[in-house]
Amino acid sequence: MDLNSASTVVLQVLTQATSQDTAVLKPAEEQLKQWETQPGFYSVLLNIFTNHSLDVNVRWLAVLYFKNGIDRYWRRVAPHALSEEEKTSLRAGLITNFNEPVNQIATQISVLIAKVARVDCPRQWPELIPTLVESVKVQDDLQQHRALLTFYHVTKTLASKRLAADRKLFYDLTSSIYSFACSLWNHHTDTFLQQICTGDEAAAANSLERTLLSLKVLRKLTVHGFVEPHWNAEVMGFLHAVFERLKQFLECSRSIRAESICRDRLEKTIILFTKVLLDFLDQHPFSFTALIQRSLEFSVSYVFTEAGEGVVFEQFIVQCMNLIKMIVKNYAYKPSKNIEDSSPETLEAHKIKTAFFTYPTLMEICRRLVTHYFLLTKEELTMWEEDPESFTVEETGGDSWKYSLRPCTEVLFIDIFHEYNQTLTPVLLEMVHSLQGSTNMENTNAILIKDAVYNAVGLAAYELFDSVDFDQWFKNQLLAELQVSHDRYKPIRRRVIWLIGQWISVKFKSDLRPVLYEAIRNLLQDRDLVVNDFEFRTDQFLPYLESMFTLLFQLLQEVTQCDTKMHVLHVLSCVIERVNMQIRPYVGCLVQYLPLLWKQSEEHNMLRCAILTTLIHLVQGLGADSKNLYPFLLPVIQLSTDVSQPPHVYLLEDGLELWLVTLENSPCLTPELLRIFQNMSALLGKSFTN
């Protein structure tokens, strides 16, 4: 392509490609696709997206096409690869100026420079890093920020390379720029803190953005740039400085208004500090040994004492708890049963842990977890009252323990209790004993404390096996609590039935189960139960089968959320599987309802998987009588095993199992059953392809 003549044409076509009119858009996209392999096309794109006078949408599209072209045609071995001459020109043009005014485009340019760096830096592009280092020193705010943004994306990309030769190059790069990166971070951090003190929020926000970017660079260099980082004084100095900076930033949060432009960035920076520590611990556990004591002191102080009041926020608490958890559970810090087989590094780390986790410290952590972090909040209680389904789904499903406070506190409790159960068992049992007897219905806090303690006993069920006579507790206390009908006691009724669900596979006499089934039935009648997966003996359960099945089916009809329907279906499936043919007198209503539920769940493939599982157990329970289900059953199998239908990705495995049990229970091979075999050739072809 001749750059001068081509620029006008490409610009025109890019403009057409931003059109909302498909008649204009489609031909433009086709033309751009044809040009992708033309020499000079990417040079034209570079000229277009670096021309700030052009339309933003056109420049944005030019950047995207350039970025996609790097993935497809930059490597030498790629079909239609760019010439070395053009790549040299493009590399030079990409780092000529760091003055892109539009944030979104600046980010995309930084990402595409990083993509080129992944392939070419440092061998074919030795000038990239020196240029970036010089550019982040300039006084112009825009150029400094854009260069720092690019510096971060390049560092992030190079740190992700895993081949030994690439790792060696990154180690060399890190050793050459680490001192500079540290001084850059310290400079921007000090500038931010000074501007906050003087009340210049606008300037502070800009400095904080640079602090955040320079810290992101340091995170990648520190975690991935050294083989044995504990031998490097600058690395360990930076990591120790992280704790001091964290304290400074947390104190800053007291003086920054919630609606301030700095607030969100400040919290992101605080979280990034904790990510530096977590990543370093994950990648270099023995190098982290020197930081164990300080990490535990810092985290426990802010999360479990008054030091954190008024400054901590939920995500920071989660990160601190994750840090404690990773130290407690780290296998590198656990000596072998034969001490002589343990390394000196392991013994040193274990010694530090043991010295920190004294009885008073463990007792305070345990009590604080249970009586503070386990308590249901006002928001949760309101949500439960107004939308019980959403509350239950959020609590039982929720986010990963790494990111959400409630599951994070529970996982930390389980891990600490497992590690120090001999110390903590008496503490928890004392809390249980203090709650025996009736609870004042007017005392909401007492009810919430009991809910939290019962939660702890359920989570620690396996650790408490030898310390709790659960059968006696059930007969003397828990059963009576299930029968308290006061509306304010709803959290306790719900928690007790959950607690029994936790213990039933640990320690629960079979002769107590009929009493339990009676209590469950009463709770189901009152719609006052989170459905749990209980183990049960079929002979003991049969007297309650009709009423339980009917109540579960009614619940299935009443609930509206997909996750709740899946959970109820799962319990119904378990019941059907266990009682097998004895379910036949009671399944008529379910058989009539499932076609409607299947139709309603067209956009919810996971719910359809639950329906398939239920059908599998139904067919097995009905045996030859399952032929009455064929008008619904066979089209379901047909759809689930048709690899030309998009839902097969989710439904195929359960659909094949349903097909198999249907054949096994069919009294004869009908024409309708034979028709499903039209799917078989495609299924076999798919299996051979895979």
Automatic annotation (TrEMBL):
Keywords: Acetylation, Cytoplasm, Nucleus, Phosphoprotein, Protein transport, Repeat, Transport. The keyword Transcription regulation does not apply. It comes from Mohoua ochrocephala. This is Importin-11. It holds the Pfam family IBN_N. SUPFAM superfamilies: ARM repeat (SSF48371). PROSITE patterns: IMPORTIN_B_NT. The keyword Transport applies. Its main location: cytoplasm. It comes from the Eukaryota. Interacts with UBE2E3 and RPL12.
